[in-house]
Each structure stands twice: as C-alpha cells, then as structure tokens.
Amino acid sequence: MASGDSTSTAQTHSGGSAPGGPFDVFICFARPSGLPFARELRAALGGFGLRGFVDEQSTDLGVDWDDEVLAAHEAALVTVVVVSADTRRSVHQKSEIQRAMKWATQPGSAQRVVPWRCPGGPTEDRWPSGLSTFRAHLGGADEPVRAAAEIAAQLAVLLRRGPVAPPSPMLPGAAPQSVSPPVKSVGAPVRVAPVEAPPTRPVAGPPPSSEVPPWASAAGADHFGRWAEMDVSGAVQRFRWIKSGRFLMGSPAFDPWRYALEGPQHEVTLSHGYWMADTPVTQALYLAVMGENPSRFTSPPDLRRPVEQVSWDDAVHFTRRLAALRPSGALDDGLVFQLPSEAQWEHACRAGTTTPTYAPAGKGLDHIAWTTSNAKHSTHRVGQLLPNAWGLFDTLGNVWEWCADARRSWDEPYPGGPRVDPLGRAGPFRALRGGSWINTALPARAAYRDARDPSERNGGLGLRLSRGRAHQRPASSDP
After folding, report:
1. Beta carbons of 268 and 246 less than 8 angstroms apart
2. Multiple choice CATH, 218-468, 3.10.20.600, 3.30.200.20, 3.20.110.10, 3.90.1580.10
3. Taking the model in full, what pTM does it have?
C-alpha cells in the first residue's frame, strides 16, 4: 500500500482475478473519515461469505498498489462508495468513483454502484459529479455497524450468497426502526443503478402443466415464462404464472425514500405459485363482467385504459362475478380469482429485484410507470411501458391496485420476523399498492404501502387480478 489518500471499492465477482483471489465487493473510501465504515462493511460481508476489498487489509506486500486496486476493481461487480467528509479532497476516490460509474453505465453492463453517506459526509448536491444518479441505493442509517450489516445483507441477496434474512441488527421480531419521512418533492423520476434481477428460490409446487387451464382460452410460454389468457366477451386478459419462492419484503432501513410502515424488512415465503394478471383490469374487462364502466377517464374512448373509481368492495364483487362466468361443466383447478395479498403483489412486482423499482439498466421511472412526471393528468392505455422481468406491466403507476389485506391503520407496520403466506386479516382499512398517475415518484416503489376505507372510490383506484389458492380475505362490507 502506497498512498495516504486512498479509496477502496466493493463489487461482486465477475470472473476476473486479483492478487489473493477475486473479490466480490470493492469498497471505495477516503481516509481517514471513511475507513471505519469500510472496515465494518468488509467484516459484515465476510459473514455472508463475500470478499470485500479494502486496500489496507487486502493488498499483499510487494505488490504495486495501483495495479492491485485496479485488478480488484475489475474483478468485482459492485462498488460501494463510502461518501465521507474527506471524499471531496480525495483524488484517488474520485478517480475510482468515475471508473465505477463508467463501467456501470455501459450498455449491457452488470456493474453496480451503491453509495452510502457517512454521518458528517457532504450532502448530495456536493457529491462527485454523476454519483447522485445512483441515489436509489443510498444508505440512511447513522450507525456504521448497523448500516454495514444491512448493506451486506442486501448485497448477499443481490449476489445470491448466504442467507436471505439480514443478520443480527435486524433479528426476527425486532421492532421497526424509527425513520424520518423522505423528502416528497420528487417530480423527477427515481433513477436506479443497473440491476440484474436474481430469481427467487423455489420453495414448493411445480409450475402448471402445458395444457390450457380450464378457465383460460389460450396458454403458452415465452421468454418471460408461462402465460394463460382469459376471454370474456372479447375482452382478453393475459395472466403470468408466478412461482412460489422467498424474498425480502419491505424496504431496508438505509433506503432514503423509506416510510416506517415499509419495515421492518423481513423474509417472506410464498408456499404456492399463483397466476397474476399482466396488467391492471381494463375498462373493457370490467365492462364485460359488470355491465358498467365507472371510470372517470372515458374520453377519448379507449377501453384499454385501466378501470378506476373502483372501491375495494367493488373489486371483491368483480372477482366474484368473474368466477360465476365460468363455463358450465368446466373442470375445477382448485384456484380462485381474487385480489392478491400484499406479499403476492410485492413478490410479483419485484420480479426478483431488490431495488426500489424494476427499471432496467439505463432506464428511469418514466420508462416503466405513469406518474405526475409523464402522465399528463390522466391514466393511460395499459401495457405501453416496459414490463418487469416476469412480464407484468404497470405494477407501478397508472392506477393504485387494491390488495386483499386488511389493516388496523393506514400506517400499520409489519409485525417483523420471517413470515409464510402472510395476509392482514384485521382492521377497517384495505391495502393499496403501486402509486398512480396522480402521484409523484415516491409511491411508485415496490415497497411503498398505503391503505384506504374499503368503500372509497376515486380516479386513481383500480385493481389487478390474481388466481391462486383461496386466502381468507377480510369480509366485504357488501350485504
């Protein structure tokens, strides 16, 4: 090691090599203020079987320091940038940051950049140029040990290493952390660092057979996976098969956009696969089933817009009417049309990602969601923007989507600890997910949660169908 102003970065192993073997994470820091967190993060990564490069601990004697750092950086896929009080003065850290951002923004690159601001570090407007592009990954925890453990847990999931559940700072059953509400003046799209969507781990239940399900008119498979289509009087709705699996539900404590009710982040197991509609319910399908179109946005006429002004009770009634339309004599596959649970919705929305949105590399929120940034004061025809990795469109933006869960209050947090097939069953409120055309980028995140009275209707409230094993839904307020 040959510099008093050095940095170190953490990235996932890409098959390259460095002296002493490949590193998973390259930790980029400036001395002296960034060194304590770099050490904590390297230790936390080790608990998940990940190797973090920190130059003072990782460089072999007699090896040229610049060559060592470059080789370690090239061998990794994730660069953790520790933004500290010395960042603006560190020539070496600025050089490594620019190198990491260049790699991360190249077409098809799997490189990732994860900034974390140390207490006392510069505010975002004083960061090295371009680093704020990756703001969606910022850490907000003030205590380095906890922040390091949480970031390491996230990287372990992203890199498919070790346990999915986070280590001791977020033990099962721990009380949710008190986190200040994020800034709400977010007219610009959330910009997300390049992300590959790792598949969730299969748990139970095979995918459906290649035959057309008894409720469907067609079925097949494509690069997204299995699909089936339902035709109701000419209104066609495609469904995607979502496999059973485990995922981390909620947002991490270091997410700057996080509200307290999005935590504590916890492992969820969905023990059975299910079908999920690839778009929100359209005006055409709602009209075909219910014989009416309650939507506010009907001019110019376009029945491929999502239906809105639908209450939770309306949505439940819709699923029951749809079930009654099953052809006489059709075989029973043991599944039912219903609203998804919050866990099913978030699992399907994330499609294996662990970031706030599923926006692909090099694309912003405007490419996947209709919000105040691009919606121009109305809903839009479904399926026009980019889908997620499992073939679902408009899970974020356009219209809010009712879920089956009940809540005691709109801001009721998760109970904490690992959960299997969770469903909120008590309380006067009903869950909503996804944000809408009338909202900023803030609610257009996979972890964002809201809830309303089940009788409420407005031009931003819609629904998405699922078909799976019946869960015990909260009772409708219909007679």
Report:
1. yes
2. 3.90.1580.10
3. 0.60
